[in-house]
Amino acid sequence: MAASQGKIVPARGPADFGWDPVFQPDGFDQTYAEMPKSVKNQISHRGKALALVKEHFAIANYKVQNDGSA
């Protein structure tokens, strides 16, 4: 399970995804909506959860085969 610590602030930035305009993660001066997506994706609970899944698959030596149909 992954979590992100932070605080609720007055809305800032584009309102294009959920709570992003009002959530400011600890250690940052910007809300999720204000920061580059690449930064948000590294520190968000979803990004952290994905990193854990990738780590699990790497430890299990799981190989993904993509036949190009997706």
Automatic annotation (TrEMBL):
Molecular-function GO terms, alphabetical: nucleoside triphosphate diphosphatase activity
Organism taxonomic ancestry: Eukaryota, Viridiplantae, Streptophyta, Embryophyta, Tracheophyta
Protein name per UniProt: Inosine triphosphate pyrophosphatase
Signal peptide: none
Similarity comment: Belongs to the HAM1 NTPase family.
InterPro entries: ITPase-like_fam (IPR029001), RdgB/HAM1 (IPR002637)
GO BP field: nucleoside triphosphate catabolic process
Keywords noted in UniProt: Hydrolase
Native species: Oryza meridionalis
GO CC terms, sorted: cytoplasm
